[in-house]
Specification:
The complex is a heterodimer of chains A (382) and B (254). Chain A has 382 residues and is of the alpha+beta class. Chain A folds into 2 domains: 229 residues, no CATH class; 133 residues, no CATH class. Helices cover 33% and strands 25% of the residues of chain A. Chain A has 14 helices and 16 strands. In chain A, the strands form 4 sheets. Chain A has a 7-stranded mixed beta sheet with strand order 1-11-10-9-8-2-3, sandwiched between helices. In chain A, strands 6, 7, 12, 13 and 14 form a 5-stranded antiparallel beta sheet that branches. A two-stranded antiparallel ribbon of chain A has the order 4-5. Chain A is globular. Chain B is α/β, with parallel strands linked by helices and 254 residues long. Chain B folds into 2 domains: 149 residues, 3-Layer(aba) Sandwich (Rossmann fold), CATH 3.40.50; 88 residues, no CATH class. Helix content of chain B is 40%, strand content 11%. Chain B contains 12 helices and 5 strands. A 5-stranded parallel beta sheet of chain B has the order 2-1-3-4-5. The termini of chain B are far apart. The chains are: A alpha+beta (382), B alpha/beta (254). The complex binds iron/sulfur cluster (SF4) (5 copies). The site of one iron/sulfur cluster (SF4) has 9 residues of chain B, from helix 9.
């Protein structure tokens, strides 16, 4: 039944590289288009058009290092992931949830309206489609369905792209989450782009995706084109420098919860939280009530304010502080929590990988702590 | 309900934090409505008398007289909150803690013999019990407003204690350290300023002081890899929070 439906909407076309502009323009008619863009020497995600794409740029990433240069490369998607992901838009870092007013009559709560046009994301990589799938599972299907996420996610559209070459810190191939947008994630990728030497193959996998494709002229993709697509994905896989022993997870972590390595890493770890902020699967947040002095009237016994939800991290000291103490009292415990949550707990909790191998945490960790290297160290003798 | 009596006191400081209070133009009238401002030399000439429900203390302890005065103020105060880098960590004047007082006096003053000062400048918490500390040079008005509201509500202020980097990412700023190897103190510095410097393309120089458990040594190792000498690394932390950063570094075991 499911596959029949899929077959019906499956549309595949070949378009000229410049015709990507038509896709952008078409999306702009009904969506806020979020795509890659240059800002302060980094590829960020923001409202963008075709002309904003950092085409031809190439980023050099290493542990704790990011440098971008214009190499005038022929590929449009010549660059790889920057620090941002869809999470900035669907799970905003500072998110007003509701406003409240407390008076003698009681408490009145007004949910914050999530207005505006739906978002279309252009250029999401395979790894991030897996992260998005995880977000959907947690925030849409999970036991705690999140109204803010569902309002922002509803009617949003994802134009994913198969990576022509990997970023220097990527290891999606070993995680099974890339570099190709595979059928497991085409439910969250409405359209998938594959860049060829002279054109794009555009495939729609959802009704919303095929609606968009409808209005774009293109040619039939030949067997030869499909062969080129295949070989490009293969060469991307081959070029990937990093990998993790995915098959040994989560046991590798569970067997080594007392490994001396955790302590060594804690010596270097700055506890800055950058890794969690850039991680597309980290979802942790804290809420607080913002009450201004003007919202507080002693005489009228009235109180008004807003409930704000803000990104937080298991690296924050107060994150695991509860009445009576802190259940992750050391830096060692906090680092271990982060890595174990990514590579072990999430999979058990949500039956999806908690790390999608995007490499962001490696690049944006100022101390250059590398999750793949840490995992490798756990395999060593204690 | 009676408005709580509030006092604003000053020790060795530049008055910048007190001015920050006066700069809270929109909230000033609300403060007056909610609090009885009983002592605040920067704003009124009311004499010092009675007790205070809440004292806001600016400045460090730099002279022998101040050492006695701060004890007296503590005795008059039900709650005492320090405001700013001077009161909370000794201020830039604490640089003399690691130098010679006579030499500093000679460099700074035309008639050094008239200056009576202790050989150290120390935070208020080195002398009396402090209920809560607001960091920053100067303090952030939103944090002060949150603290004043929280005091009335009897709750802990929602002022985060994590690193500046956390808010830098909230603001989507491209990391200066990772993308340009600039010596940014963000990873060891408490957030609170609204990410002022990185927003303006400048690395943080730590005016909000070290966050709890700051891993100063690891960051310095990193700066050294990027070409800084040990001396240059120390100069980065030897500013208005020199005492707090150095103390954190020693407590870290190095
Ligand atoms: S843990 Fe690191 S590599 Fe894995 S998804 Fe998060 S940021 Fe990407
Ligand atoms: S617990 Fe830590 S690792 Fe897990 S999602 Fe939250 S911030 Fe990320
Ligand atoms: S692992 Fe790196 S990015 Fe994460 S908290 Fe530690 S130092 Fe910061
Ligand atoms: S620019 Fe500074 S404050 Fe911002 S993330 Fe980088 S190190 Fe942290
Ligand atoms: S970025 Fe650093 S130096 Fe600049 S205002 Fe904030 S805390 Fe102070």
């Amino acid at each position: 039944m499911e596959s029949l439906k899929e077959k019906k909407i499956k549309k595949i076309k070949k378009i000229k590289k410049d015709d990507l502009k038509i896709l952008f323009d078409k999306l702009r008619e009904s969506y806020t288009v979020i795509g890659p863009k240059l800002s302060q020497g980094v590829v960020v995600l923001s409202e963008a058009g075709f002309e904003d794409l950092p085409a031809g740029f190439r980023d050099y990433q290493a542990r704790g290092t990011y440098r971008l240069t214009d190499e005038k490369a022929v590929d449009v998607f010549s660059f790889s992931n920057g620090p941002d992901s869809f999470k900035r838009f669907l799970h905003p870092p500072l998110n007003e949830i509701f406003s409240f007013r407390k008076s003698k009559k009681g408490i009145a709560i007004e949910p914050a309206a999530k207005e505006g046009r739906p978002i279309a994301f252009v250029g999401i990589r395979a790894c991030d489609t897996w992260a998005l799938k995880l977000y959907d599972r947690i925030f849409l299907e999970g036991p705690a369905r999140d109204p803010s996420y569902s309002a922002l996610r509803k009617d949003s559209l994802v134009i994913a792209v198969n990576c022509p070459h990997p970023g220097d810190n990527c290891f999606c191939s070993s995680m099974g989450t890339g570099p190709e947008v595979t059928p497991e994630v085409t439910d969250v990728a409405d359209i998938v782009l594959s860049e060829l030497e002279k054109s794009f193959i555009v495939e729609a996998s959802t009704p919303a995706g095929s609606d968009i494709l409808e209005g774009i002229a293109g040619e039939e993709a030949t067997d030869r084109d499909l062969e080129e697509k295949r070989s490009r994905i293969e060469s991307c896989k081959k070029a990937m420098k990093k990998s993790v022993p995915y098959g040994e997870l989560p046991e590798l972590i569970y067997r080594n919860l007392e490994h001396p390595r955790w302590k060594d890493t804690a010596k270097r770890d700055l506890e800055c939280g950058n890794c969690t902020q850039v991680c597309p699967t980290c979802f942790c947040n804290s809420s607080y009530d913002l009450i201004r002095l003007s919202g507080f009237s002693q005489k009228g016994a009235e109180l008004k304010g807003v409930r704000i939800r803000k990104w937080d991290s298991c690296f924050s000291r107060n994150f695991a502080r509860v009445h009576g103490g802190n259940f992750r009292p050391s830096r060692r415990a906090r680092y271990r929590q982060w890595m174990a949550h990514k590579l072990a707990y999430t999979k058990e909790q949500f039956a999806l990988p908690g790390c999608v191998g995007c490499g962001r945490c490696i690049t944006w960790c100022p101390a250059g702590i590398d999750i793949t290297e840490e995992l490798e160290a756990l395999k060593g003798v204690r | 309900m009676k408005r709580p009596r509030i006092g604003v006191f000053k020790f060795a400081s530049c008055d910048g934090c007190q001015l920050t209070i006066l700069n809270m133009e929109e909230e000033l009238l609300d403060i007056i409505e909610l609090y009885d401002i009983a002592y605040f030399r920067e704003a009124t000439d009311k004499p010092l008398r009675g007790e205070f429900d809440l004292s806001l203390v600016e400045g460090s302890i730099s002279t022998d007289r101040q050492r006695k005065e701060v004890v007296e103020i503590r005795e008059r105060s039900r709650h005492l909150i320090t405001i700013g880098a001077c009161a909370t960590s000794g201020g830039v004047q604490a640089l003399r803690n690691w130098a010679s007082l006579p030499a500093y006096k000679k460099t700074v003053y035309p008639s050094p013999e008239t200056i009576e000062a202790l050989s150290t400048s120390t935070p208020i918490s080195d002398h009396v019990y402090v209920d809560y500390e607001l960091w920053g040079c100067p303090i952030d008005t939103d944090a002060l407003a949150e603290t004043l509201v929280s005091f009335l509500m009897g709750k802990r202020p929602a002022v985060p204690v994590y690193s500046l980097c956390m808010d830098c990412k909230v603001k989507a700023i491209a990391c200066l350290l990772v993308s340009r190897a600039e010596p940014c103190l963000g990873p060891i510095t408490k957030t609170g300023c609204g990410v002022l410097c990185p927003s303006l393309d400048r690395p943080c120089y730590g005016c909000f002081g070290p966050m709890e458990g700051a891993n100063i040594e690891s960051l310095m190792e990193l700066f050294k890899k990027n070409g800084l000498s040990h001396k240059e690394c120390m100069l980065l932390i030897d500013k208005m929070n020199t005492y707090a950063y150095r103390k954190a570094r020693i407590e870290q075991g190095l």
